[in-house]
Every structure is written in C-alpha cells, then in structure tokens.
Amino acid sequence: MSNNSQLSVRQATVVCLENRLSELKRVHQPLWVYDFDDASIVWANTEALALWRAQTRQELSERDLSVDMTQVVMMRLRQYQQDFANDDTAEFKEYWTLYPNGEPQPVEVLFSAFRLGDGRMSMFCEAQGFQRLDNDALRSSQALMHTSVMITLYSAKGEPLYRNPAARASVRSSDEHLHEHFTDKTARHRLDNSGEQEVNFVASVHVGSGDRWHDISARRCLDAVSAESAWLISEVDVSQLKATQERANYLAEHDTLTGLPNRNHVSVVLEQRVLQMCARGEQGALIFIDLDHFKDINDSLGHEAGDRLLVEIADRLKHLVGDTDNIARLGGDEFLLLMGPLRDRREVDEMINQLKQHLSEPMMLQGRNVRVTPSIGVSLFPADGKNINELMRHADLAMYHAKGLGRNEAAYFTPDMSEAVDSRINLESELMVALQEDQFSAYFQPRVDVQTGDIHGAEALVRWLHPERGMISPADFIPACEDSGLIGKLGKFVLTQAVIAQRCWAENGHTLKISVNLSPVQFVAETLVEDFIQIVEDNGGDPHSMELEITESVLLGNDQATINKLQALVDYGFHIAIDDFGTGYSNLSYLHRYPISCLKIDRSFIAQIESAQPIIELIISMARLFDLDVVAEGVETAAQLQALKAYDCQEYQGFFYAGAVALGDFTALLDCDGAAAA
C-alpha cells in the first residue's frame, strides 16, 4: 500500500473514532487509542494531546511511534495485542514512562482492548495518575520493564498476578500456573515443602519454545494489592551454561583420548558401587590392567601410534565388557575394570582369560603388525579391601607381581605381596624423622600477570630433601602424610614458612599474595582456624596477603560447618581459592554459597588448551560473573600463554616462567622483576 493510501486509511480511522468517542472528549484525564499495527495513536482527547505534547489529533496520529521504540517496549505491546486477541475483557495497569517529543513523562496507565471500525484489535489507554515517583522508584519500574531477567509474582496457590515483559515472553500462556511451569515434580515440591523465606535452585521449565534450564530464585512476600501471601520468582535462562557445564563435567570424568571414564570417575562412582555391594554383603573384583612393553611402541612408532593403540584397546574393552561405566583408563597404559556382584571366583577367571585373549590380538599400526599383552592384577572385595583406594593399591601390587612372572600373566592379591605396605610404614617413620630434623623446606612458584609478565604472587610448595635419597617429589610423600595424620604438622610448617616469606618480601617493597595448599584432611581439624590465625600472629604476617587453596572435594558436603570455617578464615583476612577447578563436580552453587575469591584452572585443561577451550572460557566467564580472580596452572609453552591472553585470563604459573624455587632464588626473581619494571 502506498504512503498516500496509508494516510487515507489512517484519516478515515480517525474520523470514525471521532464519531464513536465524541463523548469522551470532555473527560478530564488523558485518553487515547493506540493502533498496534500502525504503531500510532489514532484518537486522543484534549488531555491526551497535552500529555503527548501535540497541537492537534492529526499531528499526533501522524507520528510513527516505532521510530524511538525499544525492542522491550515493542515486545510488551505485542504481548498486549496477543492477550487482547485471546480475551477482549482483559485489562492491564502499569507504570510507563512516555517520551513525547523526547521529554520523559512517567504515568500510570490502564490498558484495555478496543476494536477499530475495520475489526482490528487496538488498545484503549487511560492515564490514571501523574504522581511523581522518586528517581529510584521510577528507575526501578523501568528496570523491571527492560530487564532480561524473568520476574513473576504468583499467589500462594500459584496463580500469576504479574509478569514483567521478559517473563511474559517466555511462558506458553499468560495464565500459566506456577506448578505448570516446571517439567518435573521435584522443583514443585521444593517450593511447596519449603519453609524458608528464599529458595534458590536450577530447574527444567516449560517455555514457549520448548523446555529450558532456568536458575530460579523464589522469595516469599506479600502481594501489595491483596496483602496476601505470594511468591516473587525471578528466573535466568542458564540452558547454554548448563549444557557447557555438563560437557565440562563429562570431560572431567572421562579420558579425552579413549572416551572411557577416568580416575575421577573411579574415585567417586566406582567407590560408591563398591561401598553399596559391600553393604549388601555382595562380592566383587577390581581388575588392574597394564599393557606390557607399551613404552616400546611409543619409542619406536611414535606417540600417535601409541595413542591409536590405546584407543583400540579401549574399544576392545568396551566390546568385551559392555557397560563402560565399570571400565576406566587411569592414565598411560593402565586400565581398570570393576566386576560384581559375583557368584564365585570362576567368573573372574573367565574374564581374565577373555582379557588376555582379546587384548593380545594383533593390530595394524603404520603398516606393521603390532601385538601387546596385558599384565593383570586382581583384588577381591570385601576380602582384600572395602573401598576403592585400598582395592586399587592391592590390585596394583598384584599386577606388578604378574609382571614379575614374565608378562601376559595374571595374579590375585595375597598378603605376602604387602611389602609395599611395609615400605609405606617405613616411609611414614621417615616422615616423622624428617619433621623433627627439619628436612622439609618451602619452595615458591611465581604467579605471573598474563598480560604484563609481572610477578603478582607465589604458591608455597613443600619439598623433602632426604639425607640418603635426595629430593623426593611431594607426590610420593603427601598421600602418606594424609594417611598417617602427619599432614597437619606439615601443613602448619608450610604456612609458617609462607607467612615469614610474605613478611620479608613486604618489608623489601614486594607486595605479593602467597597461596598455600590446604589438604581436605587438614581442613577437618577442629582447631584449624585458631591454629592458622596463631601462625600469622606469631610471625608478623598479613592475612590479607595470604590465600588458602582448597579442592572441590572439601565443598562436596555442602554443610554449614564448612561454610562457618571458611567464613571464619575469610573474616580474619585470608583469601580462599579453589584449586584444580573443573576436574571435580564444579557447581555454580559453590560460587554462590562459599566465600571464594579465586579459581585455579587445572593443568590438565592447559595441557590440552585447544580442545579444552570451551571449558577454560566457561571457567573464566564464571569467575568474571562472580568477580573472582583466575589463575591458570601448568603453563609450559608460549602458545599456551598466548591463548590465555586471548581468553582474558588474569594470572598463570608454570615452567614457562619458572618452576618452584627456594626462598633465596625467588627473592632474586623478584629483584630482577623489579629492576625490569624500573
């Protein structure tokens, strides 16, 4: 239709409405009719002309109101049009800010359905109040209108009393009941059975386009109109975040090369299955598989061939066992298989025979016929242990015994294989001596600004200089310290050294944040908070420059005692960081519920920085959302650092800059860093 034709239609509409609404001209409050399709006011009384700063009705009707209209306002008007089409008796009253000739005019308006002469649905608008809201109230009403957060007020029975535009756009119908909103009964029951004033959870909900995941915050309140009990519910669509998080959780529990569950899955899922079978009085077996001479394949044919071999072995295990949840790749060429419940040991014998047969079949790698054999160790439960760690240790001992028999062999754990246990006892004895004779020392690894390369902090790490065996890796003695109860003394020693270093560096003009690892075993100590405060006080340190690193396993209990202990440490001045973030059961609720100030991205993601990009960017986005610091661990190459710069990561640590060094060497690094900056 041409512009002239449109103008003629509009003029005809105005004339028709002049006749229909002539009696309303004398009403002393602004009244006007809004044409949804034309985005124009097709009739207005004298008071409305003054409100809209128009000289004549024709001038007002010729204004194209869509020119300066925001998307949210357009969406709200389309919602009204749809609601009026469904029910021409519906009415809506809202505070709006009109902008006649660009001037803001807040007004309370009652909207109702009005059919034009040609049958089209339009909207009759009645301004009912001009009392000036204070600035905060006015802006809050506009924020409610324009926010993307979906906000709905429900009666105690679940009937919708009000929806802002975002909420109205998401639901399937304007009268959708609260209980109809959720896809399952669990979320409904959380509201129905909750005696709390505020409830927060993530739930699957019905929306107009299907089902989505929403982060829901529900607060009890009173309806301002009826003074009756009501629910004020705000919702944020977290479907994409949920999907990415589920993918991150999957990657954290699965080996990226073979697709099999990994060690994290073993320590949580298989542990629960063992405990459940033991509790029911059932028997089972844990089978430890190590490939013989796998290193020779890697050395002769290369790592790519080695990876292809591991994938083939994993596929054979999947085909043989079927249930991949009971198989895991621990790392390298080590695999684990859980069996149970068992009727008798012959089932294990049969599985061992099948494993030796199927895993030993030749395969083609780079045009060569290659064959590897398995060495298999078996521990039975409950006879050889009642938890996954004990069973893994015993199966591992049996596997090494099988290797000693000449490869391609299998062995069941027996008590006479426990020389390793005796060795561990000896180790614990040596650890006690080491603590008494000050054989431990604290080393410090720099935490470096990703963008500038400046040293911003350090992680304190313990080292053991054995008088006979030299420097011993923490991986070899920290588990023994935890098992023996010595971790508490060792942890206090490291914190003491870290506080002394922090004070000395500060006295020399170096303001650094020093982080110290806090073991889950340490964390449960009743006097932890008092002990740590005392260490800082005794050594003249600044708790605001100290950071305690915990793993996600500390937070799994989600109990009030954990919150209280962390809060007490934070109240004194300590910062709290989550170490190895992303490898456990990373959960948004941790960041809501606990006083966390920093996330440390696990080195396993940095090692696979290209394939792990979605996880790394998710962690950084989550940290930014909650105003947390982010540190990437295990950075070893320039390419990894460049990627972290692109991801806008704040800090990193790793061998690319420097490994952990003694106190004097770290001070030298600081002096060099300061000289370079000068």
From TrEMBL:
Gene3D superfamilies xref list: 3.30.70.270, EAL domain
Cofactor(s) this protein requires: Mg(2+)
Ranges of residues in domain GGDEF: 282-415
GO molecular function ontology, one term from the record: catalytic activity
Domain EAL residue range list: 424-674
Cited SMART domains: EAL, GGDEF
Protein origin, superkingdom: Bacteria
InterPro entries in the record: Biofilm_reg_signaling (IPR052155), EAL_dom (IPR001633), EAL_sf (IPR035919), GGDEF_dom (IPR000160), Nucleotide_cyclase (IPR029787), PAS-like_dom_sf (IPR035965), Rev_trsase/Diguanyl_cyclase (IPR043128)
NCBIfam families per record: GGDEF (TIGR00254)
Official protein name in the record: Putative signaling protein
